[in-house]
Amino acid sequence: MDMYLTTTDHIVRARGILLLGQIMSHISFKWLDVNAITTLSDFFTSRLSDWQALRGALVGCLALLHRKSSVGTIMVADVKRLVEAFIADVQVQSLAAADRKMCFEIFSWILDHYPEAVKTMDDELLYWICQSIDEEKDPECLKLSFHVVEVVMKLFPDPSGIADQFASDLFELLSKYFPVYFTHGAGDNLGVTRDELSRALMHAFCASPYFEPFAIPLLLDKLSSDLPLAKLDSLKYLDNCIHCYGADRMVTHASAIWFKLKEVLFSLSSDQLLSSGSPKDAENNKNQIISEAEHCLKTAVTYIHSSDRDIFINLILLDEDIVNNIHSVTTEENSIGSSLQALGSVVSILAGSSTYLCTRVFQAHFKRLVDILGNSAGFDSQHLSIANGSSPASINYGALYLSVQMLSSCREVAVASLEGVPAEESWWLILEEKLDQIIHLFGKLLTIDSQPTQSAVRKECVSFAVKGLLILATIPEQCSLLLENAYENILLMLTLVITSKYENAHLWRLSLKTLTSIGSSAVELHASKREMVYNRIVVDKIIRLAESCDASMPLNLRLEACFEVGTASMNYMLRVARSLEETVITNISQLMEV
Length: 594
What we know:
It contains 27 helices and no strands. It is an all-alpha fold. The longest helix has 25 residues, at 279-303. It is found in: Nucleus. Keywords: DNA damage, DNA repair, Nucleus.
């Protein structure tokens, strides 16, 4: 093929070199010795300066790089010469899209599989990468170029290295593509989706802590956009950047991050978002953004810290808006709204992040919330009677909601801890102090009479009271011996509902599901003492209910109760099944005798 590879006829030469490159692609599984590979590498590398035959050279280079070690691979020294030739001879942005894609594929492969070939290079490498990426618009090329930036920045972690020097230039190029907008139609068959492209750009943003001074201000600024896509991507990128940049760098942005997240969580409405869809689409966008903001806040609370570990939690707990919101929702009866939900999310995220943060939140608010809840309905914790009713109009829904959210978070902390809560940690001590009071309050709320004009409020109050009892009954028993009595009291309350409050379908089924969840939790946590108590209080009573000839409670409800409780554990189900079998046989025998 010599004459076709060196002829002065550029058309024939280009076809000859392309043919050789394609042959190399098709024989990539055939063994070649080192000398042959080096000779081919030198040839294709030398052809990179021949712009009329460049495509064939690119195909050949890529084929050599893709060879596996079992059939002979290109040497690192050859790869280094290839990179140097690229830097000297290839102007990527002057090429067609297909050729640009091959250039990025070659560099991406080199950086992934031959990093030692470029680690010793100077700033010419980064300068060439900047030039090659600048003004790129093809989606597939962009995806590859973002990966090139990601990998090359990770190869030079030295603070005084070339990555640090070029961070500003590289990020300026990346920032032009954020957020990623896809203007191509669905039928364009581009081979890359908007989500894939956005994910590749996000990984490039997170590739190096040297991007932090440029990335964080950009992301926070884009959070103010009216476009749902910009807000969502900003939150996703911010979440990942917090992970990757490290606490020392992120702590300087703590205040700005909190204020932007607070703005999204408390002030965002679907009317603020530009949308070409229906109002339902706008509402879905809002919910997505809020969910992403909550996730980002949890990441920030977990990862942004310094020698003063209180820096981020103090920003939140001492925030004037948070203080005012808590005061507002706990002084307005039946305060159900987005502000309360946002406040509950913030409190829950804080308290659920660690034992220390849970303690801080409990110290700041829990006692007061329980007292407000008790006082709002005129409850006296020493004289509560489960037989008496109460009006839902007097219940402070805000205090109830926030109390249950905090309990849910402390349970998460307790379950996540492999050992019992240390004595010096005080969140559990605060809960112990209010444990009897709050259990009695929840029990009292179960007795709220159904009032048609306030049925929605009643159901909300009852649902949260039952949820609170479920949380308390499923906190690991190693937290405190006091939980033994509390556990029994909760089971007795809920079982009483099953046996005597079946006229209230909502409360009855809610209590039954809760009893089942409590039983399952005892089995999952291998709490043998609790399993014994559950058998004695719940399973025994439900079995007696099924065996009873008392027709006051419908048979279908008795059977439903047996089935639901049985699903909590195989042992419980066996007990229920045997009891039902014996009851059926006994009844049939009695009928036969008659």
